[in-house]
Design brief:
The protein is an alpha/beta fold. It is 25% helix and 20% strand. Helix 3 crosses helix 4. The longest helix has 12 residues.
Length: 279
């Protein structure tokens, strides 16, 4: 695309981890002014149905790697440039916080190349939402002084020396997009000597009515929940603070416990960007 003169703008906004009431007032204000909303999959339908301006065009551009249906990043970049170049106010709505594991860099670079102005509005990222709605403090005196946000989706991403450091640290480890590799993740941490005082929590569909928490000592995980499958999105918290879950959980597990698992978020359509909420 060639550079074009325009007065449009792109607003990157975080929708929070699931509960629609966790969106910020600033993001809400822009949704009520937007001409176009380009939204990820992990955004509550309540936000799209009730908070977005009624005349706005909503374009779902979700990604769902396990199912194979995804909007290519290059297409998302082109949509941002196309609509902003038409002098429209575009809200790029992302689940959680727009700067945490969200491909925002690709989109910023595309806008920068075309001289399109933008603004970034933070949101509550999944680590904060999942921990809060599970009663797990991410940091606590005598438990953990730091938090690391990580992802593990390929077995060869990290060298043994780094795994050993992760296994021995007292930092709270939070893994995004890693439930499919959880058995391998636990195995390598056990191999490198993670202590018996460390716990593991898998928080499935955090902050939604379907939230489920699977919590145990990390040494017990292979026998208790090994080879399990989890509904996306699922977040993993590992460390001493995860052991506080049983004492401080405050909302219990969701209404779907023990039944067939359902997703709070709609699956990605085979041709996502043609599926608009309203004309």
């Amino acid at each position: 695309m060639s550079e074009q003169k325009h007065t449009g703008k792109v607003i990157f906004a975080g929708a929070g981890p699931g509960d629609p009431e966790l969106i910020t007032l600033k993001a809400l204000r822009y949704l009520q002014q937007a001409d176009v909303v380009i939204t990820d999959r992990l955004v509550s339908d309540v936000i799209l149905d009730e908070y977005v301006h009624k005349e706005a065009l909503i374009l779902p551009v979700g990604k769902q790697c396990r199912k194979g249906a995804s909007t290519p990043q290059s297409v998302i970049n082109e949509l941002l440039v196309e609509y902003a170049s038409q002098n429209k106010l575009v809200v790029r709505l992302k689940g959680g916080d727009p700067s945490v594991f969200s491909n925002i860099l690709d989109e910023l670079q595309a806008l920068s190349r075309h001289g399109i102005p933008y603004e970034i509005i933070p949101g509550i990222t999944a680590a904060l939402g999942a921990a809060a709605y599970s009663g797990i403090p991410l940091t606590a005196r005598d438990h953990s002084k730091a938090v690391r946000l990580l992802t593990y989706y390929k077995k060869d991403l990290l060298e043994d020396s780094y795994w050993k450091e992760l296994a021995l640290t007292d930092d709270t480890l939070v893994f995004y997009m890693s439930s499919d590799t959880l058995d391998s993740l636990v195995s390598v941490l056990l191999k490198h000597g993670i202590g018996a005082d460390k716990y593991l929590s898998v928080i499935e569909q955090a902050t939604t009515p379907y939230q489920q928490v699977y919590n145990c000592n990390i040494h017990d995980y292979p026998a208790k929940w090994g080879n399990s499958r989890y509904i996306s999105p699922s977040l993993i918290i590992i460390g001493k603070t995860a052991g506080l879950y049983e004492e401080f959980q405050w909302i219990g597990n969701g209404e779907k416990k023990g039944e067939s698992k359902e997703s709070y978020f709609k699956p990605v359509a085979d041709n996502p960007i043609t599926q608009t909420k309203r004309a």
